[in-house]
Structures are given as structure tokens and as C-alpha cells.
Write a structure and sequence with these properties.
Elements: H1 2-27, H2 36-65, H3 70-78, H4 80-113, H5 119-131, H6 134-145, H7 152-157, H8 166-177, H9 179-192, H10 195-202, H11 207-236, H12 239-245, H13 255-264, H14 268-304
Helix pairs in contact: 2-14, 3-14, 4-8, 4-9, 4-11, 6-8, 6-12, 8-11, 8-12, 9-11, 10-11, 11-14, 13-14
């Protein structure tokens, strides 16, 4: 009786083994089961879309900028108005990136390392420029610093010029670009945790020493990545700057604003010459972005091992 009862149990015990084997075979099957023509169609569509909307416009910008020769191209860039726009763009981008660098590191450190009331509100406010139109953000500064604005009369009585001057351009540029550094650092610092900082402090390191020796080396590639994106957006910002600049030629026109002015005046080659500098910036940003992404990925693999 015992042998008869045991035999079916042994046979049934072999069935899951065969099932496991079939599952393993199924796992080893190729993940891509689409026909070759489907894969080629998808890849071709992606390449064609990028060519039509990215590569072709860049080629047209540079070809139009050089349509009258290199000499005319260089003279268009050497024009006093163009030099003023380039200088103002660099000033506004430099100041706004510096401010966002400091703010981004402090905000990311506070959000990633501490728990405090209003943390969710702070994250929401950081993301605000992503959801607000740049034109609206420019109008906010007009309402604040304009002649009929909230502090406009006081500024006028003290002979302080913010609107339609460099300070307003810097403020508008800073507003639309300040999420980039913080948003790049927050998930990176949250993933790293606070164990290394706590270990450094337990060994007697101070706050600044911990930041320079522990925190900064861990976030350096992410920080550079955020600064890169922030700078690219700052130099190419149009909407907010257009509202607060006043379009004073030779004084408050940045490179994007000057491109629009020259284009409206039918100075096509000069307009495309300035635009080519912005396009060149985009290409350099793309190359550096790819390098930094590789560095960040290498750092994450190193931390895993």
C-alpha cells in the first residue's frame, strides 16, 4: 500500500521540473519578436523625424549665414549692435547660472538630506518655471518693477532702474532657469543618501569640510550637467527677456532678441549669422551633455560595485 501510494507522488514531482525547464527556455527566447520590416519602419521614422525637424534646420541656418561668404558673416558678427547683444547675453547667462548654481546646491541638499515642514511646497515652487509661460514670468516682473507696479514708484523716486535694463534681464533669466541645477541634483543626492556625510561628521569633519571632501565629489558630474543645461537655456531665452528688456537697440537686446529684430528688418544674413552662434551653442551643449551623461553613468556603476 505504501509503495503504490508513493509512486504517483514521485511522478507528479517530476512535472514541475519539466515546467521550469520550459519556462527557462521561454526566458531565453529573443525579446524582439517584431518582424524586421516593423523595426526598420520605426527606426526609419525616428531618423526621418530628427532629420526633418533638427538636422535640416541646423544645416539651413549655417548655409544661410554663410550665403554671402565668410567675410560678410564675420562682419555681421563684428557689428557694434551684435557685439553688444553677445556681451549682454554672456553677462545675463553668467550671473543667472552663478545664482542658480548656489541656489540649486542649497535647495537640493535641504530636500535630499533633511525633513522639514513645507518640503513639498519647496519642490513645487522649484518646478513652477516649467509650467509657467516665460512671457507670463516677464509680465510678473513688469507688475513688480514697472512705473505702476508694486515697487515701481519707490524705485523711480530713488532713481533705481530695473525694468528695461540689465537687472530685469538678469532677474527674468534667473527665474526661467533656476529649476535646472536643483532638479538635476535632487534625485542624485537622494539616491546617494547621507551615510557618507554622517560618517565624515562622526570622524570630526566640519560642515564645509564634509561638503568639499565628500558631497561635492559625489555630485560633481550631475552639477556640471545641470549648469550646462541652465547655461544653454539662459543664452537662448526669448519670451521673458523680450517682455522686460524694452528692446533698446545696442543696450538691452540679447542675441535671440537681435535675431528677431534683424529678421523683421529683412537683414536675413545678419539674422542667421547671430542665430548660427546660438545653434553652435546648442551643438556644443549636446556634445558636452553626452560626455557628462557617460560620466554620471560610470559613477553610478562604480557606486554599485
Amino acid at each position: 500500500m505504501t509503495l503504490v501510494a508513493t509512486t504517483p507522488v514521485r511522478r507528479s514531482a517530476r512535472k514541475p521540473v519539466a515546467a521550469v525547464g520550459s519556462d527557462a527556455t521561454a526566458v531565453r527566447r529573443p525579446a524582439h519578436t517584431e518582424p524586421a520590416w516593423v523595426r526598420l519602419l520605426i527606426i526609419g521614422f525616428a531618423i526621418g523625424f530628427l532629420t526633418l525637424f533638427v538636422v535640416l534646420p541646423l544645416i539651413l541656418v549655417f548655409s544661410e549665414a554663410l550665403s554671402k561668404g565668410v567675410g560678410f558673416y564675420l562682419s555681421a558678427l563684428a557689428d557694434a549692435e551684435a557685439l553688444s547683444a553677445i556681451k549682454l547675453t554672456l553677462i545675463a547667462a553668467g550671473i543667472s547660472v552663478g545664482l542658480n548654481l548656489v541656489f540649486g546646491v542649497i535647495a537640493a541638499w535641504a530636500i535630499a538630506k533633511f525633513e522639514f515642514p513645507g518640503k513639498t511646497l519647496l519642490i513645487t515652487l522649484i518646478d513652477l518655471p516649467f509650467s509657467v509661460s516665460p512671457v507670463i514670468s516677464g509680465l510678473v516682473f513688469v507688475l513688480l518693477f514697472g512705473a505702476q507696479g508694486f515697487v515701481g514708484p519707490w524705485l523711480m523716486s530713488h532713481d533705481v532702474q530695473i525694468l528695461f535694463a540689465v537687472p530685469a534681464i538678469v532677474l527674468a533669466t534667473t527665474f526661467v532657469t533656476f529649476p535646472f541645477v536643483a532638479r538635476e541634483l535632487i534625485p542624485l543626492m537622494q539616491e546617494q543618501g547621507a551615510q557618507e556625510e554622517e560618517a565624515a561628521i562622526s570622524l570630526g569633519a566640519g560642515g564645509w569640510t564634509t561638503f568639499w571632501r565628500v558631497t561635492l565629489p559625489n555630485i560633481k558630474w550631475g552639477l556640471l550637467y545641470g549648469v550646462l543645461l541652465c547655461n544653454a537655456r539662459a543664452m537662448g531665452e526669448f519670451g521673458a527677456v523680450s517682455v522686460v528688456s524694452g528692446h533698446i537697440r545696442g543696450e538691452t537686446n540679447t542675441m535671440p532678441l537681435l535675431v528677431e529684430i534683424l529678421y523683421n528688418e529683412y537683414q536675413m544674413v545678419a539674422a542667421f549669422a547671430i542665430a548660427s552662434l546660438l545653434a553652435l551653442l546648442a551643438l556644443v551643449t549636446l556634445i558636452v551633455k553626452t560626455v557628462l551623461e557617460g560620466r554620471i553613468e560610470e559613477g553610478l556603476h562604480t557606486d554599485d560595485h
